[in-house]
Amino acid sequence: MRKVTVLLLCLSMLLGLAGASLAADKLSVALIIEGQLGDASFYDSANRGFDKAKAELGIVGKVIECNYDPANYVPYMATAAKKFDLVLSVGFGMMDAIAEVAPKFPETDFAQFDTTGDIAHVTFIDFKQSEGSFLAGALAAMMTTREGDPRVNPEATIGVVCGEDIPVMYSFIAGYEQGARAVNPDVKILRGFVGRWDDPAGGKEMTLNQHKNGADVVYQVAGGTGEGIIAAAKEGGFYAIGVDSPQEHLAPEAVLTSMLKRLDVVVYDLIKDKQEGTYRRGTVLRYGLKEGGVGLSWSDSALKLVPADVKARLDELTEEVASGKIEVAETTK
Q: pTM to 2 decimals?
């Protein structure tokens, strides 16, 4: 009996060591975000891809939230670089941090989302949000003059409410305005910047102000602040267009659709590439309509709100942009 006990103990120890070795051999990934999860938008989209990779690819990983505090950016990223094989940095504000930290860790792979750059071993992910926003603008311009719709007024006025006044916002605005004017050259477009990504009250106030000035479709490009924009549309009886993640569920009667930035797809693909040895280190990867990196969300509620003829026209515009027949401006600034 004693020999059996000893053998079982030895076997248990060996299995434990094998398990530890297996865990050590797994790809380790950190998803470091400028803000925090729960925005129902940008960061949650990235996290969906991260969760999928953990579930399907068997990686180990951790989400690191910086809570919009610049004092956290460099130390959190440096800590991640020491512990993980791949560091995915999400948020335009993280650019200075990655420029400082990445050169100190040449063996670690980094990916920075939502911008471009030139750092030897950092892969930059640049979404063509202007292309997706072109479709959002076209939709807004078609809906704002839709006869018989109680949520719109006779004025051809639409709006866009942004978070912070940073370069990437002007890419959203450029596409939105171009798409709207492609449908109606005379449409009036109101712009606004709340100044923060986590201020729903400020987003709601600005959106209601745009509505008072005639806007009956408002495109939210404001992260967590956008929840207030959508709430304003719901309570005020007009329309909103969501961003980054499908947001129709936040107000199915008011959110026409959402302009998706498929961070979930790209996060998953980068992790898979790293695991399979095909990771493209130190390059700029661009994702537009053609690559499936941006586009409109067609949930059940969106299909109920958007008339068939409007969707058909949007499908045509999607093909024209993806094929290059229509060239969308990348920025207004």
A: 0.83
